[in-house]
Amino acid sequence: xxxxxxxxxxxxxxxxxxxxxxxxxxxxxxxxxxxxxxxxxxxxxxxxxxxxxxxxxxxxxxxxxxxxxxxxxxxxxxxxxxxxxxxxxxxxxxxxxxxxxxxxxxxxxxxxxxxxxxxxxxxxxxxxxxxxxxxxxxxxxxxxxxxxxxxxxxxxxxxxxxxxxxxxxxxxxxxxxxxxxxxxxxxxxxxxxxxxxxxxxxxxxxxxxxxxxxxxxxxxxxxxxxxxxxxxxxxxxxxxxxxxxxxxxxxxxxxxxxxxxxxxxxxxxxxxxxxxxxxxxxxxxxxxxxxxxxxxxxxxxxxxxxxxxxxxxxxxxxxxxxxxxxxxxxxxxx
Length: 334
Description:
eight-stranded antiparallel β-sheet; alpha+beta
């Protein structure tokens, strides 16, 4: 009897185990299908115009011989995609733009549609940010550190780091304007953000800690200009960014290392109608900010080291030293 009961219970346990394993397998398949769909959307959006027209044409030109279609394809150099093309298309979809019918667009049923089709353009009037927050956000994060060796002169680096902001040099007169004793306005030039021209204007407040020998530059406001899209995006994001400037000693008493550590976090609202996965948007935006910091932070440290060199030698003019240097506080095009 006991052997019979054990035998009858065994199939029940096996059935539960099989059901649980089947459920996990089904969940993994669903996740893989979702990822494949996301990759397919990105791939289709990054296709050149003629190829995309061929795939999405409702009535493909099957009656036209293949040898007649070949001359209409772009030259190999025209089909080579820039590394900015795919991210630009993603951002256009993210910003909520929709292609509008154009009388100049030929019918897709004709063979000329393969050569005349172009990617949809972005009309700023189609951007749709709701009057109230819709609960969806993307976060762009990036950080960068850089350092530079300096030799102390008549005045020590510790005294330089303890200077009040009112005695700061603007470093680059073309980019920085003093607003008050401890506040500055910084315009780092035009930035190509996913193919769109934007000019960031940073408002910075400086806090000095003489005991620790460091100063912290906090960005308390950010404005975007340079294009219609940049102006529409104003007010739809929050920025948390700071630059901590400090130094450390070395084995040689007169040799110091000046260092700067920058961290940036941008929380941006997602417009209505977004169809792109949020993780794709976040990774793309973070890569752009990282590319800017990779160039800007080392430049800033070099200019600051030059300013200290002048000040430590007894120069109290506090002139903008970047005018005599190849490094400028201008943003690279990413």
